[in-house]
Write a structure and sequence with these properties.
Number of domains: 1
Helix content: 25-40%
Structural class: alpha+beta
Order of helices and strands: EHHEHHEE
Number of helices: 4
Distance between the termini: 30 Å
Strand order of the largest sheet: 1-2-4-3
């Protein structure tokens, strides 16, 4: 849905990326599509379920397999490093913090340089 008449100060993208099909590179396009409704200094934040090695125990791996098989999620190849790369390509400021199998992120200031990165 496109919102006309202005831009937002902040946009939440919680629980969205891991539901989208494709690689983390494909999912990174979400941020490109948000750009028209963001101010230069807007903040985008959220979380995504990831599949980093060592982040999942036996029960979590079984749950991930079931959720992927049922197509509720698509995150077999999603990693916190992949998310970090996608944010770095688009924003001057970003942070990704992993807690177990969840990557929390916050980013601001769309980059005009295509990759200059500084943490908050």
């Amino acid at each position: 849905m496109y919102v006309s008449g202005g831009a937002f100060d902040s946009i939440a993208v919680g629980g969205v990326l891991h539901c989208l099909p494709g690689s983390m590179r494909d999912k990174g396009r979400v941020f490109d599509n948000l750009r028209p409704v963001m101010k230069h200094d807007s903040v985008v934040f959220g979380y995504s379920l990831i599949s980093d090695d060592g982040a999942l125990g036996v029960a979590a791996k079984a749950a991930r397999a079931a959720l992927n098989r049922l197509r509720f999620v698509n995150n077999y190849t999603d990693t916190s490093d992949g998310l970090r790369r996608e944010l770095a390509m688009r924003f001057d400021h970003y942070v990704v913090h992993r807690v177990g199998a969840v990557a929390f992120f916050i980013a601001s200031q769309f980059s005009n340089t295509g990759g200059e990165t500084h943490a908050f």
